[in-house]
Amino acid sequence: YRLACSAALLRELDALVARHPSTMSLEGIQADASDGYKAEIRVVTVADSVQASSFDDRVRIFLNFGQHGRELITSEVALRLLRILSREDKSASKKHIDRILSRAVFKIVPMENVNGRQTVENGSLCERRNGRGVDTNRNWKVNWGVKEKDYDPTEEFPGTAPFSEPETRILRDIALRFKPHLWVNVHSGMQALFMPYDHKNATPGYQAAARMSFLLQTLNALHCNGNCTVGSGGGAVGYFAHGTATDYMYDVLKVPSAFTFEIYGDVHANRDDCFRMFNP
Ligand SMILES: [Zn+2]
């Protein structure tokens, strides 16, 4: 499988959105840190009438891809999903897409960590952090900065403070304005469908857990042949992650369904063959 480099992928994305001005719009959001570090994140809105003044009556879906640099495949999946929603890719019937878009609105971030991915494309194939060495999936303000015994800063340095990173602030601010009903943070490295919590071996209260678990079990049967690990991030993986986006979306922003999907992983890959471990 040949993966596109980020510049080519983003060019393709921009062209796709430009071909569908009534259903897709693209915004480039910039933020910087006090030391001058900058990030720009593209976010694509998809709806049957994307210029509508309000999406109050819609199911609001917020999807994030490419949070970790080395997980290149996730941004390819974002582009594929956008092609399907545009109806250029005919994998789903027009009727099916029409029905989804009559009820839902999407905000899709195809590549959160553009800077970190650049590092990977320059040869550091195992890099997952952003352009200045912070794991942006440890930079959110839920149990931020707590470190496990096996803490490895080259993997999960959480930054100097919660929301120290421009990428994290951009995503948080999109969520604050958009008020999603559904959040999915798409990663690779294994095959799993996670619900909260990442930072402890527990799920949310019974009703919420039952609802989310039902959704994940259904997806597991439909798309994973039952082979995906399903459960709370902290409970099912065997390690705790502190300061994650999904925990913040659920706990603080009260997004009712908040998930992390791990869409691909090669468990037989050599430990230092990160390209193979995270990408087909
Ligand atoms: Zn990841």
From TrEMBL:
PROSITE patterns: PEPTIDASE_M14. The active site is at residue 262. Residues 1-280 form the Peptidase M14 domain. InterPro entries: At5g42320_M14_CPD, Peptidase_M14. It comes from the Eukaryota. GO terms for biological process: proteolysis. One of its GO terms (molecular function) is zinc ion binding. Its cofactor is Zn(2+). One of its GO terms (cellular component) is extracellular space. CDD domains: M14-CPA-like. It holds the Pfam family Peptidase_M14. Belongs to the peptidase M14 family. This is Peptidase M14 domain-containing protein. It comes from Selaginella moellendorffii (Spikemoss).
